[in-house]
Amino acid sequence: MNQNYSISFEVDQSPDEVFTAINNVRGWWSEEIEGKTDELGEFKYHYQDIHRCSIRITELVPGRQVAWHITDNYFSFVKDMSEWTDTDIVFEIAKKDDKTEVRFTHVGLTPTYECYPVCSDSWGTYINGSLRDLITKGKGQPNQNERIANKHGIENA
């Protein structure tokens, strides 16, 4: 059984429109991003002293796939603060009849991780909510970290 966290949805927009939206990371995940998110290379994400990570973009196939590798990670709310380190995030884009399917998989994020309840909730919020809205409505809801942290009882260190 596949233990990696995965979520998918379908939209009316084209694979190229979906690809462009995924690479607009500030538009759906967080405005607290340093670096370019639409070309191969590295960018950094942080939320207060609760979560920060370095992400290397390893694959950009227009209209098909985006892949990231987490090179470094820190969580303030788990014992093993490096739980995401050396995991991969893959966005697969596929045409399904007259729809476009977006499949998000965080390879290595499994239910055995202490962060899994928070991380899976966060990804669900950002992928199925904010990214989908960015694709379908032209505007996402980045920076929902405070609401998610409060929901899970996580406080800034």
Describe this structure in words.
It is a single chain. The protein is of the alpha+beta class. It has a single domain (5-151), classed as START domain (Alpha-D-Glucose-1,6-Bisphosphate, Chain A, domain 4). Helices cover 27% and strands 36% of the residues. It contains four helices and seven strands. It has a seven-stranded antiparallel beta sheet with strand order 1-7-6-5-4-3-2. Strand 4 and strand 5 form a beta hairpin. The longest helix is centred in the last third of the chain and has 22 residues, at 116-137. It is globular, with a radius of gyration of 15 Å. The model has no long low-confidence stretch (mean pLDDT 94).
Counting structural domains, the number is: 1
Helix content range = 25-40%
Beta content comes to 35-45%
CATH topology value: Alpha-D-Glucose-1,6-Bisphosphate, Chain A, domain 4
**Averaged pLDDT, please?**
94
* N-end to C-end Cα span: 36 Å
* Number of separate strands: 7
Question: What would you call the structural class?
Answer: alpha+beta
* Strand order of the biggest β-sheet: 1-7-6-5-4-3-2
Please identify which CATH superfamily we are dealing with: START domain
- Rounded to the nearest angstrom, the radius of gyration is 15 Å
State the low-pLDDT regions, or none: none
Please give the CATH architecture: 2-Layer Sandwich
* Total DSSP helices: 4
Helix and strand element order? EHHEEEEEEHH
